[in-house]
Each structure stands twice: as structure tokens, then as C-alpha cells.
Amino acid sequence: TYVIARFRFSAAIAATAGIILATTYTFLRHGVGVRLDPGVTFFIMAAIACGLSIARRPAGRLTLALWVLMGVSWGLGMLIKSPIVLLAGVVTLGSFLWLRRWDLVVNWRWAVVVCVALLIWAPWHVHQFMTRSDFAAIYFGREMAGRLGNEQHGSEPIWFYLAQLIKYYWPWLPLAAAGAWLFLAKAWRQPEPTVRALALWIVLFFLTAHVAARKYDRYLIPWYPAMAIAAAYALSQTQLWAGWKRLVLPNVAAVSLVLLATAEVLDIPMHRTDSPAVQSAAPTIREEVLRAARRDDASPPVIYSTGLSPGSQCRLRFYTDAEVVEVPGAAFDWAG
């Protein structure tokens, strides 16, 4: 986030964007857990940063290394998760078109990008396809195409993400909305690569998140870095900016340590759930995990769930080297 912001803005704005992203609840909550989305987001940002570096170079000074790095970012991003990382390519190509950089739009180096990405992405997928007869149906069918409909994964209302932002994106929501508007307005008036790429990033990723019928708050994680830069820019245009640079930026490290220590001492949960059934089972889950961990001869417990299809009942079981523990009262509707 800092690197991308520095293509156009000052170090203070770039650092502020990093602070805003690090204090975005949804981003932080999934970032501290084992999720694929933050890793995909990193490679999305890396690909966009390569595109911005290319766009800022004169027509006669294009370097192949940046195109290769873009292909590496695409390939690793797709290897981690779905082809959502290719939206970074849409943002890059869209900004080239918007800037009328025809030397970049029609360029043989795009073939290098695609070839590098395929060399990284293809081996594991080909291996799975050759060794598992149901791989294509599950991976490309149920896990990708299946999310576009509501038959397999359920669905959420069209206003789901708006409700999530209103509920969790504080205190940055007003600044992010204002910054996004400023970026869109500036993108129309000024042929500047970074602003136009950020405008496309904000619009395309937010709209794409609505394509899937089943919506999750983590689907917006690749969108938050662009909004963090927008919020930082909006903050720099207010009267609070001078005080922010004088008081907050020099002391952010100390404040972060205090906040982290407070969260650790108070044992503030970062992964809350809205499911009453899971909330009621949580104390038992915690007790069983700690009890298994206290035994010197015990391997880490494995949480196993049955009935992982919408509408079915799911029961949680703990498998250790010594016993199987079924959590009482943990049956709940998986779709919920």
C-alpha cells in the first residue's frame, strides 16, 4: 500500500494509508488468521505496482523485468486462490487505455506476462486434474462457477457489502468515500497513471465482489488497500492533516504497541461470529483445545466437521491422538 501510494503522493500520505489499512477491522480480522485472501491481495498489489512502474516509463525505456514480475504476481496469485488476481491485469490494461498509451496496450510483452503466469499456475492444476477425476468439477465447478449462483453456497442480498461497510468500516468510511469521489473526479480531468489506476481499482473490485451470489466480507479485502489510499488523501485535504502529521505519524509505533498489548492482556477476540450455535459451543471448543494442549503426549487437536452442505446439520468433533470429543450442542445450520 505504501509503495503504490508513493507513486503519486507524499510519504506522509502513504504512511497514513498504511495506518488506515492496518486499522480496518475486516482487513485486520482476516489478516491475523489463516486466510487465502490477504495473500492474493498482496499479489494483486504487486501486479498493479508493476503496471504503474511500466506506465511511468517513457515509451522507449520499457524494461522486460517489470513485465516478468507482473506475470509472476499473476501466477502466484492464481495459485493461491481463484483468478480474481487477473482483475489487476484489467486495472493495468484499463489504465493504459485510459492514458492512451497504445505502445503499452499493444505490446508483445503481454505474451511474456501470460506465459510466466501459466508456467507458475499450470503444473499444480494439471497434476490435480490428472490424479483426481473430480478435480475439475469441484475446483472449477463448485468452488468457482458455483459461487455465482445460490444453489450450492447460498446467497446474500445485494446490499450486503454496503451494510458491512456501515457496520465495520469506522472511523474511515466517510474519508474513504470522499477520497474515492475525489479520485474519480481527478481521474477524469488528469491523465495521471496512479490516480486512474486507483479509480479503476476501486470501481472494478467493488462491482466484481457483487457478482457472486454468496457474499463474504473477506471478498472486499483486495479492495481495502485502494480505499485506504483514498481515505489518506481525503484526510490530507482537511484541516486535521496538520495535527495528524504532528501528533499521530511520529507516535504511531508507540501507540500500536500499546494497542496490541492492551488487546493481548484483555484477550479481545478478533474472530467473532454471529451464529448463536457457534457462540454457545465456543467455551467447550476452547476448553477442549486447552485440555489437549496441556497433555505432553498429545498432538494438536484437529477440528472435524460433518455435513458441510447448505441446509444440513454440522457437528464439530475433535480428533486427538487419544480420543474423539464431540462438542455437545454444536449442531447448527452450515448455511447460516
Q: Spans with pLDDT under 50 lasting ≥5 residues?
A: 306-315, 318-325, 327-336
Specify the structural class: mainly alpha
Number of strands: 4
Shape from CA axes? globular
- Give, in order, the helices and strands: HHHHHHHHHHHHHHHHEEEE
Summarize the amount of helix as a percent range: 55-70%
Mean pLDDT across residues: 80
The rounded distance between the terminal residues' Cα atoms is: 34 Å
Number of helices: 16
> How would a crystallographer describe the biggest sheet?
4 strands, antiparallel
- The amount of beta strand, in percent, is 5-15%
Q: Please state the CA-atom Rg, rounded to the nearest Å.
A: 23 Å
Which terms summarize this structure?
single chain; 336 residues; 16 helices
Give your account of this protein's structure:
The protein has 336 residues and is mostly helical. The chain has 16 helices and four strands. It is globular and about 65 Å long. Helix 2 crosses helix 13, helix 4 runs parallel beside helix 6 and helix 11 packs across helix 12. Strands 1, 2, 3 and 4 form a four-stranded antiparallel sheet that branches.
